[in-house]
Amino acid sequence: MTGRAVDPKAFRPPARVVIVAGKGGVGKTTVSAALARGAAAAGLRTLIVEVEGDSGLPALFGRESALGYEESVLTPAGGSGPGSAEIRARALTPDDVLVEYLEDRGMKRVSRRLAQTGTLEVIATAVPGIKDILVLGKVKQVERRMAAGDPGAPDCIVVDAPAAGHAVTFLSSAHGLLDAAPAGPVRGQAAEVVELLSDPARCQVLLVTIPEETPVNEAAATAFRLEDRAGVKLTPIVVNGMWPVLDLPASPPGGMALAPSAASAVTATATFRRSRQEQQAEQVDRLGRLLPLEQIHLPFLFTTELGPDELGALASALASQLGQVWRPAGR
Amino acid sequence: MATGGPVAGSPRSASLTEVVARSQVVICAGPGGAGKTTCAAAIALEGARQGRRVCVVTIDPAKRLADALGLESLTNDARPVAVPGLGSESGSGSGWRSGSGQLWALMLDTKSTFDEVVRANALSPDQAQAILDNKLYRNISSALGGTQEYMAMEKLYALHSSGQFDLLVVDTPPSRHALDFLDAPSRLLRFLNNRIFLLLMAPTRASLRAIGMATQVFVRTLSKVVGGAVVSDTIDFFATFEGMEQGFRDRAAAVDRLLVDPATAFVLVAAPRREAVAEAVYFADRLHASGGRVRALVANRMFPSFGPVPAPLAAASAAPNAAATVMALAHNMADFDRVASREEACLTELVDRLADAPVVRVPFLATDVHDITGLEQIGQWLFGRDVVGP
Fold first, then answer.
1. Any chain B CB within 8 A of the CB of A51?
2. What distance in Å separates residue A193's CA from the closest CA in chain B?
3. A47, B140, B291, B308: which has the fewest C-beta neighbours closer than 10 Å?
4. What pTM value is reported for the model?
5. What residue ranges of chain A have pLDDT lower than 70?
6. Which residues of chain B neighbour A305 with C-beta distances below 8 Å?
7. Where are the domains of chain B?
8. How many Å apart are CA A113 and CA A117, to the nearest integer?
9. Are strands A72-75 and A87-91 parallel, antiparallel or unpaired?
């Protein structure tokens, strides 16, 4: 996490697709957005893929309208700093992906009606994991266009994955289906998704957690399950919400004419923060022992809502630290 | 759907203590990451401290309640939790006294619960077995959205009917959207009543004609895409299931009635963050529309408020020769004050929406909660006992 400064313009993710995963409430969407913004600032046209809908992603970019199935522009070129590239986003919600898949296979006239009558749910239950595979299959389509040098394709894809437990299912469904399903188009799709996930030049997973006991435990458990079941490469883990460490004395120094109540408020605030600082240091240390991954620390910003300004600060912090881990020479 | 009753007309000054005391069921709902599991456990502990027989039902696959209760694992059957100072049936019997408070805990096993429901509703043991053996059925509990939520309600209903407990506290699944819990029964019923497959399994020639060309094309194409075996398993499932829908519908209606019963209290748990509050407002409106009500709001993980930076400290830290420690102290107080004031503003819309429900603010604690002692601490904030400033 320390070392020489890295030129933000040289920031390059190690894979075409970076999947951001973590337990609910740890800031997965925020990290996805910050990563996209860091990549855009380095001149990479970046596409964020949302898979659950209603994530609060647009608000981070100062926008109010929800994302649609088709790509929309979140930040125009130049909007993330001089020379920055465009950031786009789309919501690949599983139902829509399944409808599109069926439409492409001769069910155009009935697929919308199937969605309304709940028949899609029946199909998705009869073939568990089909939605996950189709969503990742769509991501793979875009990734193939990138690889082929399609000028309309992005330079970088960031996928905001479902919450932790679901992320393991999301990423391991393709393997599961290959083991269980008979031949057919869906099986072919699953095989291609497995190829995508197991090639670290094409796809890597960025885990997110916060420096508290349960989230740290869950991050470690998720990491092992992802490596075992999804065969995907994990890049560094992001520890979000780190309180900036202050060097605080036990009590205010004399000579300030503080009223006793004010002095005790100052002391109580300092005591509280020192306690949180000690705990987070302990949790970060424990995470390091549980999980041999490099850690990226993002600061807690002492606010209740994040907007474009806060996102900019997080993007710089993320890109400068990731830039050192993801150096071109280190690939 | 019962919406009136003594609880609905209760004074708005009711505390969470009173809400819990007069409820038979407490459902902790809210967006993910808000601390529902911890709150549910703390509420259950309070119920037991009030001398009641309490069971807390958790559905969380991350087993966070198990962490919170210091247990290694939970099962689909309620088991007693050893709590210092509470009687329990689990020991040699010496510690258990009739009428004394008890705390039990249960981790929902979605699959076994669904199996029990199938056995209870099947017209014959053969029908039950045929369903349990069906491939599509075996996927339902893991792959069909909302099943976990619905089985949580089913388990709740079964425990409630058993009369074994005075109070049930339910921790809802960690879905991104709190509403998934309320939508679950209709999703499952819609699945079980799927019209296309009902038509497909109809045996007569007349009904075959009624299916229409579009559906026949659909089935042929579907067989090509996902495989013929999958389609025939699916048709088998719906054929086997025939005759049981009514039982499921009746049960879902009974569960719905329990959810809006005056003795059932929804406690909304939300952290004071923009997205969480928006989600909680949406949930409260939706619950209200279906005849239920939020009885209390737990604003969890609130930043402790220590007040603004005292003037002498602000002045000292702004001085040109200010010591680093003085600047750090001022900086720290300003950080806390900034968040604390924004949090109140962030909660306003939700608090206004729940005008007659008590709002309990639980601070973000200096240490994480993972044992009974930690739950007791949360309980002090929830129930206002011996609370001293942060």
1. no
2. 16
3. B291
4. 0.85
5. 1-6, 53-54, 109-112, 116-117, 164-165, 180-183, 328-331
6. 273-274, 342, 346
7. 5-383
8. 6
9. antiparallel
